[in-house]
Specification:
22 helices; about 30% helix; five-stranded antiparallel sheet; alpha+beta; globular; six-stranded antiparallel sheet
Length: about 800
């Protein structure tokens, strides 16, 4: 029998059984199998087809059943038939019925010797199905059969809707038709639980590719299924963190911020979220330590997947008391997240004390609770409680990390709101708390800064920062948010946080400003619902990265005043940089400029409040600034004070002023060692020996053991997973030893949790444990993996 005959529509036997057990559908394949015509069986009980003495099929535990039945042929003989039956959802006009399908007996238990099947299987490295032009299954490998939960041989000849009645089966048929008609590949994403899987549904990506013969005619479709649940969940977590960074803290109102936290997390993280806060102590004070149980908390906000939040026991504004056995009091006392579940019995002691909550838990099927303390600037503000009842899975470690990340952002916003409600001096303290209290000590620069708020407008949006980067490099940033007041200060805090986040992934200055520009555009759009003009958000920014090894500085600016350079032996001058549009314009490019700096050069960054004055124009202010910077001084702090005293009037400036000075340092070439690494694992040992010799020459014998292990892991990973050329570089100063391995593969590494018998997967985890910090950065040629080792005891 030819393949086309074996898979003819009339071969597979199909019958539709109504909810009352009568037959309502009978295919030509069923007639061929049992001899009965449709007129003879439709409308009669399906049980009448069972052979004398045959047992009826058992009641299915779910919506699908498969097994062998002994049926009666029209000529009276008994026929043993394998049957797959699944319920079909009602279409609004009838009750639920069942579709029973029996594949052709001639299909056997293996794959037929079919050129189309061989063609598809050679192209499919994973769970695979092959359908022909009539949407009949022509081939399926064992991986896919395990996924479906049925023997591979029993599936041949069936259509997707024969195999199951879930919406995904009908959607797959639609995609198959489109691929057959267009000849173009398609992807289909879906959520479903694999057969026999005890956990919740996974995220699946089905790739559908046409199969063509030598003439180019589409003869079938190859379907491969990929489980991308981990990537999907990671993307969802990242999306939630991004949403939280934008949606939480839009105002400095405590209740609004708490509600934003609850809104963001439902239903993405939990089915019900409540935010309960400690009442501030008298005179506006805050308690830094955890409160002693029982704890009194005031409900600030809650949100639920159910309209009206019927699960809530407390109403917004109501004070409730939580005993020591409750997750709320336990998390506050411990200072970290507490996860409790009904299955483990963690909630029994608390629920015995609180019958009202016990009734709600029973009523809504609540099975998991996670209590996360809200902490900001060393102060405990309250707790955010995440509850699940509709989502079947309990909270995982990843859920805990995500909840802590989101609540940490919300806690800062809530703390800001509380501080804003106080007098002006407290508001100014808030502004200073958003700026770096001290500048980090780095091997690249010596820095000093000043910030002065406007005398009349109060809090503004000027900011500055010095951010240590990998490879001894340092980033310097100065920015200015348009306007004054709390909104400008809050926007400044967001932008500074965004700059720190973007700097941590080591973007080039022009790329960083592009991302920052996108953020300002989104902030403008979200806050544009008020009066005309109140929703506009704008800012200027200057971002620079200095490398003490090459002694080069890369700068880019977004409408910000030009920086000044004071060479070691010459007067101050402005650096000529491309201007770039202000942040918030959107869609326009930014450009970088690179300058080589001698050791001891001073870079001066400032906001326009330093130059703008009613008594003089900007050019005159720039000239006075150059003179003040050029005058000799004993320290950068003295220079900062002289600049402010020279340019600002006695009564202070009408605008915020931020000033950042940085004196560059160069790293001697003797403190840098570089090796070109051949892509040969056998040469890793000689490289380790060379590294040990170099550390001995540097007098860093105490770091030899750790450095040797780190270099071995990074070099081995580069040889195994990277692409040549591969380069190893060691850099050190008095406090830090840096190991860098570069290659031309752009794929960044990631930590993973190796299983007990895995032969690999522990290298980066070992590096993370042995070093004070590690990471990767992209370069024009590929990527660099770096790790920092502390050389001084007080660094640990």
């Amino acid at each position: 029998m030819s393949p086309d005959e074996a898979f003819d529509d009339g071969v597979a036997a199909r019958a539709v059984i109504a909810a009352d057990g009568t037959l309502t559908g009978w295919s030509e394949g069923a007639r061929r199998l049992l001899g009965h015509t449709a007129d003879e069986v439709v409308g009669r009980p399906a049980a009448a087809l069972l052979a004398d003495g045959a047992d009826p099929p058992p009641v299915p535990a779910d919506s699908r059943w498969s097994g062998t039945l002994t049926l009666r042929h029209r000529d009276g003989r008994a026929v043993s038939v394998w049957v797959l039956a699944h319920s079909r959802p009602p279409d609004g006009t009838q009750t639920t019925d069942w579709l029973a399908v029996s594949p052709p007996e001639s299909t056997g238990q293996g794959l037929p010797d079919d050129p189309l099947v061989r063609m598809a299987l050679t192209q499919s490295p994973c769970a695979t199905m092959i359908f022909d032009e009539r949407l009949r299954l022509r081939g399926v490998n064992e991986a896919m059969a395990d996924l479906v939960g049925l023997p591979a041989g029993r599936l041949l000849g069936l259509r997707p809707t024969d195999i199951g009645s879930r919406p995904q089966n009908a959607e797959l048929e639609d995609h198959l038709r489109r691929v057959l008609s267009t000849g173009r590949r398609q992807d289909m994403q879906t959520h479903m639980k694999a057969s026999g899987e005890s956990r919740g549904p996974h995220a699946w990506l089905a790739r559908l590719a046409p199969l063509t013969d030598t003439t180019g005619r589409v003869r079938g479709v190859c379907v491969t299924a990929h489980d991308f649940s981990d990537q999907y969940r990671s993307r969802e977590r990242l999306q939630l963190v991004n949403e939280a960074s934008v949606r939480i803290g839009t105002t400095l109102d405590v209740t609004r911020t708490a509600q934003e936290l609850a809104d963001v997390c439902v239903p993405a993280l939990a089915d019900f979220v409540s935010v309960d806060l400690l009442d501030p102590q008298e005179h506006g004070g805050e308690s830094a330590g955890p409160p002693a149980p029982p704890v009194s908390l005031r409900r600030a906000a809650h949100q639920s997947v159910n309209a009206g939040s019927p699960e809530a026991v407390a109403k917004p504004g109501q004070v409730d008391v939580y005993p020591e056995s409750s997750p709320q009091a336990a998390s506050l006392a411990a200072g970290h997240t507490v996860v409790a579940s009904g299955a483990s019995g963690d909630l029994e002691q608390w629920l015995a004390w609180d019958p009202a909550r016990f009734r709600r838990i029973r009523e809504y099927g609540i099975h998991s609770t996670m209590s996360v303390p809200l902490q900001a600037r060393g102060t405990t503000l309250g707790v955010a409680v995440f509850t699940r009842f509709r989502q079947p899975e309990g909270f995982t470690d990843d859920d805990v990390l995500l909840a802590e990340e989101v609540t940490a952002r919300a806690a800062v916003c809530i703390d800001n709101a509380r501080r804003y409600s106080r007098e002006r001096e407290t508001t100014l303290t808030l502004q200073r708390s958003l700026l770096p209290r001290t500048l980090p000590r780095t091997a690249a620069v010596e820095a000093a800064s000043r910030y002065l708020p406007a005398t009349r407008s109060g809090v503004g949006g000027d900011w500055f920062d010095v951010i240590p980067l990998s490879g001894m490099r340092v980033a310097m940033v100065v920015g200015d948010v348009v306007g004054h007041g709390i909104q400008a200060s809050a926007t400044m805090g967001r932008l500074r946080t965004a700059v720190r986040t973007l700097a941590d992934i080591d973007l080039a200055p022009d790329e960083l400003l592009t991302h920052l520009d996108d953020l300002v555009v989104r902030l403008s759009q979200e806050s544009g619902g008020g009066d005309a003009g109140t929703g506009e958000v704008g800012a200027t920014c200057l971002y620079a990265v200095y490398d003490p090894v090459s002694r080069r500085c890369t700068l880019a600016r977004a409408g910000h005043p030009l920086p000044l350079l004071v060479p070691p032996d010459g007067p101050a001058r402005q650096l000529d940089l491309p201007s770039g549009p202000p942040l918030g314009v959107g869609g326009l490019p930014f450009e970088c400029a690179e300058v080589e700096l001698r050791e001891g050069s001073v870079l001066a960054f400032h906001t326009d409040g330093l130059l703008v004055s009613r008594e003089r124009d900007v050019d005159a202010g720039t000239r006075i600034l150059r003179e003040a910077l050029s005058a000799p001084s004993d320290s950068l702090d003295e220079t900062c004070d002289r600049v402010l005293h020279t340019l600002l009037p006695p009564g202070g400036s009408t605008d915020d002023v931020a000033l950042l000075l940085a004196r560059t340092r160069g790293l001697p070439s003797a403190q840098v060692a570089t090796w070109d690494i051949p892509a040969d694992p056998a040469l890793v040992a000689p490289i380790r020996k060379q590294v040990v010799d170099q550390l001995e020459r540097w007098g860093l014998l105490d770091a030899t053991f750790t450095a040797e292990l780190v270099v071995s892991e990074l070099v081995t990973n580069a040889i195994r997973y990277g692409a040549p050329p591969i380069r190893l570089r060691l850099i050190h100063d008095a406090a830090t030893l840096i190991c860098e391995v570069s290659d031309t593969n752009h794929t960044a590494p990631h930590l993973r949790r190796a299983k007990t018998w895995d032969e690999g997967g522990r290298g980066l985890l070992l590096v993370a444990q042995l070093t004070q910090r590690w990471g990767s950065r992209h370069t024009a040629e590929g990527k660099t993996i770096w790790a920092e080792l502390a050389l001084l005891d007080d660094e640990f």
